[in-house]
Design a protein that fits this description.
Layout (H helix, E strand, L loop, with lengths): L1 E10 L2 E11 L4 E5 L6 H7 L8 E6 L2 E2 L5 H7 L1 E4 L11 H7 L6 H9 L3 H4 L11 H14 L4 E5 L7 H16 L3 E5 L3 H7 L2 E6 L2 E7 L5 H9 L4
Parallel strand pairs: 3-8, 3-9, 6-7, 7-8
Antiparallel strand pairs: 1-2, 1-4, 4-5, 9-10
Helix pairs in contact: 4-6, 6-7
Length: 231
C-alpha cells in the first residue's frame, strides 16, 4: 500500500534519512523505533508531504506521491497525527469534530467519532483547550478518523499521558486497525506498541538498521543495542 524506495532527505547539508526502503501493507501496523534524533519524525513527515525527498520515491499503491503537498497526501488517504495534541483549543469538542465532517451529516460524524472514545460524547460543549492531555489526544485521534484515511501515521501518541490513558489510546488504535486502516506508529513504550504491531523497523542516524516481524523482536536487545537504555 505505502512504500518508500531509496528515500533520502536532507536539511541544508545534513542528511536526515538515507536510502530508506519501507513497505506498509493494507491493515498492517508498523512500529517505528529508534533513539532521539534517529529520524523517526522526519520519516513520518516525509510520507505525509511535509518534507520533500532529496532522492527516492514515496508511493501509495500505484500512485507516485513523491514531492506532493501535504494536502494531496491527505486527500489520497494518508493522515498525520503529529506529536502533541492536534486540536483547536479555542473550539468546543463538537466544533473540532464538525470541522472534519466534510459534507456528511454532522450528527452522524459526531456519533462516529465519539464511538472511539465515549468520554468525548460527554465533553461536546467543552472547550478543547480545557480537556486533559489524554482527552485532547483522544479528540485528535477521533478527528483523524473522520478524514476517512487508509493510512494513519502516529507520532508519540502516548507522550506525557498516564498509563491508563495510554491503554485507552491503544485500544482505539486497535479498533482502527480492525476497521481496515494501516498504521505507522512511533512510540516510546516499546512493549506496548509491539502488542499492536505486526512489523518493526528500527532507525539509527537516519538509516534502518533492523527490521522484522514484531513477534521476532527481542525487546531487551532493541533497548540495549538501539535505544541505549535497559528495558
Amino acid at each position: 500500500m505505502l512504500t518508500m524506495r531509496s528515500v533520502t532527505t536532507a536539511y541544508g547539508g545534513t542528511t536526515a534519512l538515507k536510502d530508506i526502503d519501507l513497505e506498509l501493507g493494507a491493515g498492517e501496523v508498523l512500529a517505528l523505533l529508534g533513539p532521539n534524533g534517529a529520524g523517526k519524525t522526519t520519516l513520518l513527515r516525509t510520507v505525509t508531504g511535509f518534507v520533500k525527498p532529496k532522492a527516492g520515491r514515496v508511493c501509495l499503491g500505484d500512485r507516485d506521491m513523491t514531492g506532493a503537498a501535504p494536502y494531496q497526501f491527505a486527500r489520497a488517504g494518508i493522515c498525520h497525527l503529529p506529536e502533541g495534541h492536534g486540536v483547536f483549543p479555542s473550539l468546543t469538542v463538537r466544533e473540532n469534530l464538525v470541522v472534519q465532517a466534510r459534507g456528511r451529516r454532522i450528527d452522524d460524524a459526531v456519533s462516529e467519532a465519539t464511538s472511539l472514545f465515549p468520554i468525548l460524547g460527554k465533553r461536546l460543549k467543552q472547550m478543547a483547550g480545557s480537556l486533559s492531555g489524554g482527552e485532547q489526544q483522544m479528540l485528535a485521534l477521533s478527528r483523524a478518523y473522520l478524514t476517512k484515511p487508509t493510512v494513519v501515521v502516529v507520532d508519540e501518541a502516548s507522550l506525557g499521558l498516564a498509563p491508563i490513558i495510554v491503554d485507552e489510546i491503544y485500544e482505539a488504535l486497535s479498533v482502527l486497525v480492525g476497521r481496515g486502516l494501516s498504521l505507522i506508529v512511533v512510540e516510546q513504550y516499546v512493549k506496548k506498541v509491539l502488542e499492536l504491531a505486526q512489523r518493526v523497523a528500527v532507525l539509527s542516524r537516519g538509516e534502518i538498521v533492523w527490521s522484522g516481524a514484531a513477534s521476532d523482536t527481542n525487546v531487551d536487545e532493541v533497548y540495549d543495542r538501539y535505544l541505549g537504555v535497559e528495558a
